[in-house]
Amino acid sequence: VKQITFAARPSGLPDASIFRIEEVALPDAKEGELRLRGLFYSVDPYMRGRMNDAKSYVPPFQVGQALEGGVVAEVISSRATGFEPGDVVLGPYLPWRTEMTVPATAVQKIDASIAPPSYYLGVLGMTGLTAYIGLMDIGKPKPGETVVVSGAAGAVGSVVGQIAKHLGCRAVGIAGSDEKGKLLTETFGFDAAINYNEPGLDDRLSTACPNGVDIYFDNVGGEVSDAVMKQLNFFARVPLCGQISMYNATKPPTGPRWQGLMVTRSILMQGFIIRNYAARFREGIEFLAPLVKAGKIKSEETVAEGFEKLPEALLGLFSGKNKGKMIVKA
Ligand code: NDP
């Protein structure tokens, strides 16, 4: 079977040389194991962090080993009770191989009759749940409040804005192009969209947020966040979801700038990691699934065709190649 191997640790922005496509032989499945064929593979910004040799909430990738991530797969053969050939399963940390032998405990069955299987990597999976938990638990939105989202046209951000709208908030999205801005207002129903690559971010933000900003859902950090922080209201909440603008930095590009404002305006800022909220996933799915089914939350996907596209798709996240969730279809 084919495998994508982590060939070298990058410094700064990675390129294709850190990946190697190899043929590997798979061991036979033992008792309690499944043989799977990958259908849809998730690429996610956090994988950049796993490329560094640094202690974090997930162990670093090991050079010479397969990369791994969220995969929706079909069971080819089963030596585990409760799994039959043809079942469709989701594993959050499965190897980047076209087929794989894994313990049944590494996956869970998904119901492909509720939604297309790839949705379990996005709006009904890790990124949708991240939007839900971060916005609800830390953002605590109230109707009429203004919610600003950075990385708004991506997998997490697009769902944050749509939940905010559903709850009666004003949703303002920040993304990297006018085309993405159109997607935000025309498809996802944001009230306003701002292209951070155009000059005048401060002015355009204040025009889009005439009542200031009550919640800033931060996916990107850096200069975009500097601009939003200045416009936060008293008692604003800032769910810190990600800082993608810094993931490839070799040293932190900005110093602390916001803490003074946080004091005087009594702002709450809190980071969170979705995998610590597993006990809430069912609640999140129960909230999201009916809205997705009713078309009130739209799922946009950018799908690259072919297992070998995984490296390119992953790197594409750092230059904004995706609209909505970036997926690779085997
Ligand atoms: P996205 O689908 O949003 O893809 C990444 C997007 O980031 C790109 O499309 C691009 O959009 C934007 N981007 C890339 N580089 C920069 C930059 N230098 N400055 C500003 N924007 C940039 O990814 P996800 O929705 O999966 O993840 C979004 C964020 O949420 C990430 O920071 C990720 O690490 C984080 N995250 C955190 C989780 C948690 O548990 N806390 C769980 C899941 C995700 P554009 O064209 O607009 O620049």
Automatic annotation (TrEMBL):
The keyword Oxidoreductase applies. Pfam families: ADH_N_2, ADH_zinc_N. It comes from the Bacteria. Keywords: Oxidoreductase. The keyword RNA-binding does not apply. Residues 12-328 form the Enoyl reductase (ER) domain. This is NADP-dependent oxidoreductase.
